Fold this protein.
Amino acid sequence: LDVPPSFFPGDIDFFSLGTIPGVFDIDPQTYHRIQAYSNTFGSSLIKNSPDYSKAFNPDSATSAMNFGSVYELYFEHLYKTIAEGKFKSIDELSFNIAEINDRVAIAGDWNKNSNQYKDFVKENEGKIVVTGKDMLRVMRMLKSALSNKEFPHYLTGEWQTVLLWIENGLPMKCMIDHLATNFKSRNKLQAGDLKTSASATEFGFKDSADRYYYDHQAVHYMSGLEHCLPERELAPFVWYVCESQEPFGNAIYEIDEFMIEAGEIARNHSMHLTKQIFQDGVPEFPLYTDAFEDGKKVLSFNDKVMQKRFKLEWTYESTTSVNS
């Protein structure tokens, strides 16, 4: 290894879990404690460059992230039930299961500054606390998902599959939301990831994919499958996207060759950064323009901002001509 597992965030040794490369049945809480390069770590290095400290000390989960985690639990339970042939209707489906109860607590309709709410949060430490309004939104999103008649044909496989492998001198890990082989994947093994998004439209999700480096994610997961299951033929990576606000649309997007190329470039850069930071250490202070010539970057406005300025100019000239 060029970089040891102890370099990465976490407290579970990479080599203590079994034969590597391999496929593991590990819960999400344990997975996040494994010391290895992950999609989250790698994409964080690029997103926050040159403030690399955030990859090692990530910010606390936002309310949107927590909501996404809760929705994923309910979505997974729904489609497991459908795949098992036990689903009748959303109104008859019980969500009173350990996988949800162990991780989610539904608060009463209290003000978040009230003692009742604060006491409830303390009593449910370690769980994601959501409100009744949040749960109404979850149910609305699930009903939207059910309106997509293609989802059940894709979501027939295993959920939360953990892969561990070594690549390019780095210990690697990933947790894949969904893995399946079915007629939609042309009988090839297909990895997919559930995303909650403000917009599931092509342009809206493409913007999110760029901002959050979903291309890095897809390439990382596919590489894990190639290392851990080399005998399997792989189908293109897909995202199952559900809008978290009105109009609560949904979509299925498949990665193409250009996005794969973009992901490979991003991931190679991130792996290089990882080795560089291991050798040189994390800088005490981020130098935002240090990589540019003479340590400076030319700053410019885009067309949108310039239009605002031109509007000011037009208003000023109009006022001046009237006064004249």
Remarks:
- Residues 257-280 form the longest helix (24 residues).
- The chain has a mean pLDDT of 94.
